[in-house]
Write a structure and sequence with these properties.
This protein is an all-alpha fold and 96 residues long. The N and C termini lie close together (6 Å).
């Protein structure tokens, strides 16, 4: 059980890093002239984040041209991170 206690904070940190990558993706989406296909860095960021964002795009339709699904995506990541940290703290508190 000790390995689980050590693994949960690592997973929470991974979600935090993914949130930062997602933030970069959202901020870059404000620049419509970017060529997402020819730039390898932009293509990588897009390929990492778009499948996750697409899951939320079906839940919240764009309003007036604004894609608000990223807000729900960030909330879900934050919830997952908090759950992992809470579970890790609870397991550590029980001495497991």
């Amino acid at each position: 059980m000790e390995i689980v206690t050590q693994l949960l904070p690592v997973l929470a940190r991974t979600l935090e890093i993914y949130s930062l990558i997602l933030l970069v993706r959202v901020l870059l989406s404000w620049f419509p002239n970017l060529d997402w296909g020819s730039n390898p860095v932009l293509a990588t960021v897009s390929s990492i984040t778009d499948p996750y964002l697409n899951a939320f795009r079906g839940l919240i339709p764009p309003l007036g041209g604004l894609d608000l699904s990223a807000i729900l995506a960030f909330l879900a990541l934050q919830l997952g991170q908090n759950l992992l940290l809470g579970a890790g703290a609870a397991l550590a508190g029980y001495g497991l």
